[in-house]
Amino acid sequence: MSPRSARLARLSRSVTFSASHRLHSKSLSDEENLKVFGKCNNPNGHGHNYKVIVTVRGEIDPVSGMVMNLTELKEYMQEAIMEPLDHKNLDKDVPYFSEVVSTTENIAVFIWDSLQQLLPKGILYKVEVHETEQNVVVYKGEETIVK
């Protein structure tokens, strides 16, 4: 049997959480907020059942046959996603969103940054946040687009 070259694979795990929020930017007037965010700017907020899919990428370990132990990934996702976000008012209960509009894009960035602090360096590949069945944000850690 000849030695095999390393094989890369992507491993994904999903969780769901429920949270409320209000789309509102402190940089805009009340009228501008209503125009930009519509009914999502409701002063009393609204809620979603979010689905998050986290994908890691790496070499398949020749001994374990895994990219990463799923139990560890589950624990990291519990700490980075479920504990800070599940059954929370994002704008009031999560300090990050006191200054950042709680759009699905920014939720994906929050989750990415939180997971980056926990996962082995370089393994996080993608965070998908499904706000609804029709609205999905994919974030891969990019910071800016060069213009």
TrEMBL record:
SUPFAM superfamilies per UniProt: Tetrahydrobiopterin biosynthesis enzymes-like
Cofactor remark: Binds 1 zinc ion per subunit.
Pathway: Cofactor biosynthesis; tetrahydrobiopterin biosynthesis; tetrahydrobiopterin from 7,8-dihydroneopterin triphosphate: step 1/3
Keyword Lyase found: yes
Cofactor: Zn(2+)
Molecular function per GO: 6-pyruvoyltetrahydropterin synthase activity; metal ion binding
Record's keyword annotation contains Transcription: no
Family classification: Belongs to the PTPS family.
Protein name according to UniProt: 6-pyruvoyl tetrahydrobiopterin synthase
Organism of derivation: Dasyornis broadbenti (rufous bristle-bird)
Lineage of producing organism: Eukaryota, Metazoa, Chordata, Craniata, Vertebrata
